[in-house]
Amino acid sequence: MSTKPNKNNMLVVGVFEDVAKAKQAQKEIEVWDETQSDIKLGGSTVIYKDEKGKIKDERSSKFDWKKGALIGLLLVPLTGGLLLPVYGAVAGLAVTWLKGIKREDADQVASAIKQGNAALAVLCDEYEIKPVSEELKRLGSKNVVGYAVPESTSAQVEHAVNEAASKGEITPERQVSQ
């Protein structure tokens, strides 16, 4: 039994050539997660631009749907506001952690998505950033960046997600950015 924390308040984002490669990497990262005794990822989502130019995100159903909603909120600042959640006040919490991220890194992710690439974002713990980053590179990511989400922000966003879920504002079928 692992005694390592399982807060999953860090975000690792890898940029892939296209949505098919990002979705394949998402499946493979889930399998990899299951084979690693000391790694327990929190969730993942693929972000891309569809044929109509609309930004989409597809969250893994393997992970807890509330973590999927959390990851959707945390991606708002990284995608340059490309993902707009149903309840905007909660997104403001996610934006507060952007201060610790290099603006050029966030812009690079948003720009890559706008240009037809796809990104795979994975929630993990701080000690998992390096192995997750290495795995994303092995799976074909052109660029991988790890982001620290302040614990207070992560806790506030998670609380807001749980509140919205208890009010029926989000459900497994209707998550934050859908």
Give the termini separation.
37 Å
N-to-C series of helices and strands: EHEEHHHEHEH
Strand content: 15-25%
Shape: globular
Low-confidence stretches: 84-90
**Total of DSSP H or I helical runs spanning 4+ residues:** 6
Taking all residues together, what is the mean pLDDT? 76
The profile of the biggest β sheet is: 5 strands, antiparallel
The helix content is 40-55%
Total DSSP E strands: 5
What is the SS-derived class? alpha+beta
Radius of gyration: 15 Å
Please characterize this protein's 3D structure.
InterPro entries: DUF1269_membrane. This is DUF1269 domain-containing protein. It comes from Dictyobacter halimunensis. Keywords: Membrane, Transmembrane, Transmembrane helix. The chain is of the alpha+beta class and 178 residues long. Helices cover 44% and strands 18% of the residues. It contains six helices and five strands; from the N terminus they run βαββαααβαβα. It has a five-stranded antiparallel beta sheet with strand order 3-2-4-1-5, sandwiched between helices. It is globular, with a radius of gyration of 15 Å. The termini are far apart. The relative contact order is 0.25.
